[in-house]
Structures are given as C-alpha cells and as structure tokens.
Amino acid sequence: MKLRYSVLAVAAACAMASQGWADEAAAKKWIDSEFQPSTLSKTQQAAEMKWFIDAAPSSRPRA
C-alpha cells in the first residue's frame, strides 16, 4: 500500500513538472494550426497567449 502511494506521488510530480513549458514559439504554432478560423486576429490571439504564458509561473506550486 505504501508503494502504491509512492508511485502515485512520483507520477503526479512528473506530470506537474512537465506542464507549462510554453513559450511564444509554441503559442504561434498553436495559433497558426489550431485556432483558425477565429473572431480574433492572429495578433490579438498572440497577445492573449502571451498573457497566459506570463501568468503561468505564478500559478505553479511552490516547493
């Protein structure tokens, strides 16, 4: 039982560590490939994605 919780904890830590490594190049790729058509221009979409990229570090759990 203790091993099961340890494995679960390691899996959760790995999943959280791999999230949120977004950058502006990745955002541009998403805008070009996934978010079209849109009511927002690509410039507006990029500005919105930049807001999320900048906000992401403050939402990460602190160690």
Q: Segments where pLDDT lies below 50 for 5+ residues? A: 1-8, 10-19
Helix content: over 70%
The computed structural class is mainly alpha
Q: Rg from C-alpha positions?
A: 17 Å
Distance between the termini: 25 Å
- Could you tell me the strand content as a percent range? under 5%
Structure report:
The protein has a domain at 21-63. The protein is 71% helix and 0% strand. It has helices at 2-18, 24-33, 42-59. Helix 2 (24-33) crosses helix 3 (42-59). The protein starts with a helix and ends with a helix.
Walk me through the topology:
Layout lengths: L1 H17 L5 H10 L8 H18 L4
Helix pairs in contact: 2-3
List its traits.
3 helices, 63 residues, 71% helix, single chain, mainly alpha, elongated
Quickly describe the structure.
The protein is mainly α and 63 residues long. It is built from three helices and no strands.
